[in-house]
Amino acid sequence: MSGGQSTARSTTSVGLLLGLTLLGGCVRLVPESGGPRPVTPPSPPQAAKPATAALTGVTRGPIAAGLGFKPDNTAAALRSFVQSCPRLTKRTDNSGLTVPADWAPACAAAPGWPEGEAARFFSTYFETAEVGDGNAFVTGYFEPEIAGVRTRQPGYDIPVYAMPPDLVRARPGDAQPLPDGKMPLGRYDDAGVFVPYYDRGQIEDGALAEKGLEIAWAADPVELFFLQIQGSGRLRAPDGSVIRIGFAAQNGHPYSGIGSLMRERGLIGSQPGQYPGSMQGIQQYLRDYPEAGRALMRQNRSYVFFRELTGPGPVGALNVPISGRSTVAVDPAFVPLGAPVWLQLDRTEASGLWVAQDTGGAIQGANRFDSFWGAGAEARQVAGGMSARGRALLLLPKGTLERLNQR
């Protein structure tokens, strides 16, 4: 969604605050390639084979019936799983663990299964698996609400941009592929040369002004910065009207978490005179020192573009609505999108059954998760301070591990 750019969060969790996260989670719209095509493009170098759960290794976990499912939590996970099934049974699983047909029996049974017996559903159709060492790190994200309007007016001067049409992926031969084999994002200049896209500072200085890309106007640059980290949110106008926006694209520059940078500089921490290492503490510093804060935010050259959303709630990377206290953002190279995930953590409120419905730019690697908490003050508080460690188990269709062992 992101869930935003959703996606590494460290003590501050909201994903990136502490500088680790980006999250985000929301639908990731990938720009198409653009610009002039070379007459005879050279062959790009072979990209290294990316790591996946299948390559990392999985081991069988305990039986699902023995995990200690809680009724309310499990019923919510069943609802999220039902929403995910239309995608789950059709899409390619980049983790290398499952194929669409594996999910067919569970997805056929799920819609009519009584929610009061959700624990029996997961025990009947799933087996557990641990990826790598199973040691999990979990942060949190939420759907923020900030002051914003559709038409610019006094006090609302910060543009919220849609995805620019000149933001494209390089054509083969025009740039080096990324480690995952994809071509980088950028733009073609007037000479037809592929160059990096405008970074945060250039965009804030007006690189995209007066191009008709403004879909709304925000009141507070700090709030908009953090909304970009979350990847989706709500803009509330003085008259009470609300515009919901979600992730559309990112400018191609790597995410840099300002939280980790602030910690290195001794600005946040637990010592006297330091600001708390939470989303709230970071925001307070940025407000107390606006010039220094503006420079800090520009250290994160990554910039997120939005689209207006309609429907019941934010949409995740699986392209289905995500649910607070039920959706978790994952790295799809290690967790099949749509799969249930059991988390046993040192934070009880985040322990339980979740469903992988989102991704985030900083949510990378095995057993790295970003929990979604919904909208509102409580969600903001929990997500802003979520930093939990423990054990993660994937719930895979029964028979998956046996098939993998026969390879």
From TrEMBL:
Keywords, alphabetical: Cell wall biogenesis/degradation, Lyase
Record bears the keyword Lyase: yes
Pfam family, one: 3D
Enzyme Commission number(s) from the entry: 4.2.2.n1
Domain Lytic transglycosylase MltA: 145-307
Gene Ontology terms for molecular function: hydrolase activity, hydrolyzing O-glycosyl compounds; peptidoglycan lytic transglycosylase activity
GO cellular component: outer membrane
Domain of life: Bacteria
PANTHER family: MEMBRANE-BOUND LYTIC MUREIN TRANSGLYCOSYLASE A
Official protein name in the record: peptidoglycan lytic exotransglycosylase
